[in-house]
Amino acid sequence: MIVAGFGFTSAATEASLKDALNRAQDQLGTRAGAVATLADKARSPAFAAFMTHSNLSLSLVAHSLAQSQTTLTRSPAAQAAHGLGSVAEAAALAAAGPGASLLGARTISEDRQATCALAQGPSQ
């Protein structure tokens, strides 16, 4: 299964998250079957609204597991806030399981409030 990992600011809206997902899927020509983000970020009202309308399963990623992932991009904001190169990429990789790989670098929503990365586990 392909997992869509998300990172986003506190200003992100449901539309920001949808846009980031659509951009990632369109860029890579594939569709996600699940969503992942850091456990503490899932409490966001915008993320909760996004999940209510997405029909995708959710994996909450522990920060310690996200920190063990190697990301393609290095966001200064993600590094400062979470100690991660990319929250979206780390969440996608962690949720896709051991040996997972990114299908590409994260994409950014038009309003620059959300990022999405797609990862796939080795058995798929």
Topology, element by element:
Layout: E1 2-8, H1 14-28, E2 34-38, H2 45-54, E3 57-61, H3 63-67, H4 76-82, H5 87-96, E4 101-102, E5 107-108, E6 114-120
Parallel strand pairs: 1-2, 2-3
Antiparallel strand pairs: 1-6, 4-6, 5-6
Helix pairs in contact: 1-2
Low-confidence stretches: none
Spatial extent as radius of gyration: 12 Å
- Give the rounded overall mean pLDDT: 94
Shape: globular
The number of distinct β-strands equals 6
Largest sheet: 6 strands, mixed
The total count of helices amounts to 5
User: What structural class should be given to the helix and strand makeup?
Assistant: alpha/beta
The helix-strand sequence is EHEHEHHHEEE
Termini gap: 6 Å
Note the beta-strand portion.
15-25%
* Helical proportion, percent range: 25-40%
Protein traits:
6-stranded mixed beta sheet, single chain, 124 residues, alpha/beta, 23% strand, 5 helices
Tell me briefly what this model is.
Helices cover 38% and strands 23% of the residues. With 124 residues, the chain is an alpha/beta fold.
What does this structure look like?
- The protein is of the alpha/beta class.
- It has 5 helices and 6 strands; from the N terminus they run E-H-E-H-E-H-H-H-E-E-E.
- It has helices spanning 14-28, 45-54, 63-67, 76-82, 87-96; strands at residues 2-8, 34-38, 57-61, 101-102, 107-108, 114-120.
- Strands 1, 2, 3, 4, 5 and 6 form a 6-stranded mixed beta sheet that branches.
- Helix 1 crosses helix 2.
